[in-house]
Amino acid sequence: MHELSEQVAAILKERLEIVPNQSVAAKAPGGKKVPRLPFVFVYTPEFTFEDSGVGGGGAQVSEEVQDSKEGDGKTVNFKLSQRAQRPLTSVESPPGTRLAEGTDFVVNYVTGRVTFQVPPKEEAPIVFRYLSAASAGRTRTVRLHIVCHIDVWGEDETSVDDIVLDVIKGMVLSQEALAGKGIQLKPSKGFILGQEDGLPDEIFAQRVVYTAEIEVQAKESVPRIESIEVRQKPPV
Q1: What are the tens digits of pLDDT across the range 195-204?
Q2: How far apart are CA 49 and CA 60, in angstroms?
Q3: Which among 135, 170, 196 is the end of a domain?
């Protein structure tokens, strides 16, 4: 959560022209010492979350691998760099000429060896594409809803108003950059802080509240089935 505060604080340091960089911090107000004004605090006091994968097994994910070999006109056996899921995505030799599994070649998925019926021509490139069995898994998504407070402290109402407006403008202009990082930041509300909020004497302050939505993926590895045994039940 603190990472979100730091990213928002970095945006404000870049966007706010009337507040020095050292007066924008990713931390909550606190302590007995009042900072030099004006000052902007960015922090995330609370969050909620939900499992987006409830009721389902999650999305299936696998990493696609590409191996490149070269024929010599004699060799028919080639070993893949990783264990492959069945079937291979494609085998081309030369690239652009697709070969058929079971007709042009056979695959031993246990040893990871590909055997051609006819040896590929000398210096002919061979391209194997397949899904890695080692990377097979399921993903579930957790959606975080993070409340982000931006507190603006100043010596008078006018200066605080000006800074708050600049904060809002700066966040609007940074929506696209945040979205590129997977953060959907939405404005929620704003209000004036008073002594009942723990504000020190002779300090004017306002709070701007945003809600960030962030998706976090959890991956569960799926073990590979190495073999299947079929046993006949003895007659009674």
Answers
A1: 888 888 889 9
A2: 22
A3: 135
